[in-house]
Structure formats: C-alpha cells, structure tokens
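for the writeup, i need someone to sanity check this before i put it in the appendix. the sequnce is what the collaborator sent (i think, or maybe the updated version? ugh). structure was predicted straight from it, no edits. if anything looks off just tell me and ill rerun, i have time this weekend
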Amino acid sequence: MKRHGLRRFYVVGEGVYGEARSGSVDGKKLVPRKAADAAGGAPDATFRFSRMGPPGAAGAQLSGTTREHLAELMTAGDKKASRIPAGYTYLGQFLDHDLTRDMTTTPLGKNESPAHMLQGRSPALDLDSLYGNGPHDPDDEVFYRADLLHLKTGGTDADPNDGFDLPRAEAAPSSAVIPDPRNDENLAVAQTHLAFIRFHNRVVDTLPSGTPAAVKFMRARKIVTRHYQWMIKTDFLPRICDPDVVKDVFTNGRKAFEVGVAPTQVPTMPIEFSVAAYRLGHSMVRAGYNWNVNFDNGEGTLPLLFSFSGTSGDLGGDAPLPFIWVADFRRLYNFGQAGRKDLVVPAAKFNRTMRIDASLSNPLAKLPQQTIGPPKVPMKDPRHDLAFRNLTRAKMVNLATGQQMVTFLHSKGVNVKPLTAEEIRQGAGDGVSLAPLSPAERDAVVARTPLWFYILREAELNGGRLGGVGARIVAETFHRAMEGSATSIVRDPTFKPTLGPNASTFRMVDLLLFAFEGKKKLLNPNGG
C-alpha cells in the first residue's frame, strides 16, 4: 500500500512527473507530453492534473538537504490544539479520496506505462469513493446488498451483523470491500466511510414507499450527494478556510482556476491543491485521541488507529474489528451545535484538531514502512518523514513557490496580502522557527518558500484557518469539483437541504444524526 508514496502526476500539456527510476528521493519528469499521449495518457483521460498557476521558476526548488532539515523542524516540536472538532481531520481525508484515487499498484521505482500512471476516478465531489460505478457494474456490485439499493455494512467480533464496521471479504476478513481501499487505511477514516454508508441506507429507507424500484437508487444517491456538497460548502470549508473567501468564491465564482469552462466539462485537479494546499490536513492530525471509553486519555494513539484498520494494520491482527474499537462520534463532533446536549461529552474527553500551522505531530516523522510502501529504507531515512515527502513531491512536479502564487493571483484580480520575510521566518511566534537552519538554507526558504509551507504559515498567522493563497486554492478547487459533478448544487442554486433542522442548515453533525437515527447507542455503542 502506497499511502504516502511519491506517486505519478499526468499534468495536462506537460506530461508525466514521477520518481527517478532508481527510487531516489529526488524525482524527475519521466515521460514528456508527446510520449505520454502516444502511450495512452492523452488529454481525454478520465483524470488529469493541471496547473492553476505557473511552474516553478528556475532555481525555485530547495535542495534535498534543505528539504530534509526543514522537514525535521516541521515535525520536531509540540503542537497547539485548535477549536475545530477532530472529526473534521478525517472527514477531510474522506473528501480527498472522493476527489482523487491513485489506481497505480506498481512499486515505487518500477517502470510502467503512462496510461497506468493516470488517476482512476473523477475529480468531482460525486461520492464515487462510496458508490463506485454503481450497483449494476459487475466489479462494484459486490459492496451492494442483494436488493442493489442498499450498501453493505460489516460487523465486529461482538456481532457479525451489528453494522459497526465496513464490509470485509470472507477470504481475507481484514480487507474492506469498498471502492477505495484508502478509506480503510486508518480507523478514523474507516468509521467515517461507514457513517456515509449508513447515511445512504437511511435515505433509501426514508424514500416514499411508492418510489419505483428502477429510480429509487439514483434518487437516493442524488439526495445524499447534494446534502454532502451542502455540508462541505457550509460546514467543512468555513472551518478550515477564511469564511469570507469561501463566500466570495461560491457567490461570485472563480477567478483563478478553470474560469469560463463549460460547467459540465470534466474538471481537472490543480497540482497546487493536491500537492500543497490540501495537505493542510497533515497539520491537523493529533498524536493521540480520547477515542472511546476503552481508549481514553489519549490512548487512541495514531499508530493504533492505523493498526486497527484493514489496509495499514490488518485490524491489529484480529478479524473482524474488535467491538471495543468502534468510534464514539460524540468525542469527534460537537452535537451541542445541533441542540443535542445529551450527546455532548465533558470538555476533557472531547478531541480537537491540532492548529493548522507549519508544524506536524511528531509521529508523522516516522511513518511505518507499510504506510509509505517500497522501497524498504531504514527508519532514519527521511523518506519516512511525511513533511519531507510532501516537500519532495513539490520538487517532483516543479511546483510554484508561495511568492509565485501570490503574483499569479494578483494577476487574476485576487487581493492576496503577501507574507513578509519575517513572517515566513517566525510565523506567529509560537510555531516553527527557521532559526536552526543554516543562513544559506534559511535565506533559500524565505526567498523561495515551498507552497505547502507558505500556505501553512499563512494559516498560522490567520488563527489556524487557511487565508490568502491557501484559502483561494482550496475554495476554488472545491467549487469546480462541485460544479463538474453529475449532481451539483453549484449548477442548481435552488437546492435547499431537507434532512437538517431547517432549509439552510445541514452540517456533519446533522448527517451523523440522520445516519445513526439520532440514537446515542449507535453513535457511541461502547457506552460511557
């Protein structure tokens, strides 16, 4: 499993970018555009990356040594908590997997054709990571129930039919039978995927009894997708981005990304989003969680959440999932905002994300080998460090610097305040300082700031929300992904949610309350 592998990117008009064939950490462009097109990576491929802004200027990329030292600083210290409920970290990961899916299975460093380097799913917010190609596709119907209306759920060691886990293959019980196996790479995102399964099934069950069977599934999917998009627009995005930027983009349209394209045209995925801006979620990860009554006081550690997933940890060596590991959603989302005081836990038990800033929780400096994939390297190798891997991806695709993106956005009429040299060096004063770098390394980072670091620094200076460059990239990418979806609230501005408390409100807590029937015993089956 190449969860954090240095994957390949087919960039429209440029070709395929990827790792050097030797498996070294400094990637290079593998296949030029014409060769890629001839091999099947043509512009009509289902999934294409693009550039929102310019490529990196000559000399823009940091050296391997500088990237390594900067990554060490980013994963070295303690982080501060934010006000964002911790569930949004893994909701964000679920959304990412809905936007992109790497179909490549070739080990790192091996040759493969450009046609197989392409992403395999549409960069639209249409929940294809939940539905696949639909119940009538012979490869996908395995995760639908026999009625081809409901999605399957799985069970735990307490009851194989309790519905508290993902469906799993009988031959290999630890493997989840879902369209995107990445949603089973840690327990938090696996339980999030399960919530969406239950959400769909509850929508099916609440459709009018007279709904013709032939249209029932598509009607349910449309209801689910529209409410999902509404939740992203009104709940998720304003928590991680400057709300004013989100409002501007969804009210006045995009200024920088795929402006003027036909709304129903298949979107591309900007590498500035995929390789930099949306990696904000890595900064939100906690080292430990008050997961449930059994794993309290931070005992639900990040390594354990990987271990008790099917993809990364074989369910901790057990099959099926131990019941004691089922999530307590009350500790991940604030149900008080929905007026459910009975579902509010004491503040000491509630989990909040880490602040979005230029630092990552220390466990992310030592990703396990099964998480990063081949080739096998010693634990001291920087390829185990997620920050280093992110910085290296940027070099691999010749990403623009933060300063270049400021200039680009200004040219598109977007008013973005550039960070000063001092702000890049010191941030808010309580985060990562560049002082430990050598003078030459420090000057390089300040003058040619990697876009990912620049965006995280903006957030740090904006109270823990993306601002400026980062907010604009994320908001415009999500807007385009919704616009280009087969079911789209952007193209249908008359849509109003019907499954929340009123016609303007549908948040993640409302989705969970509907999916789990508002019952405490379903949202927190372990009690406590």
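Confidence is low (pLDDT under 50) at residues 1-6, 20-25, 27-46, 102-120. DSSP finds 20 helices and nine strands in the chain.
thx in advance!!
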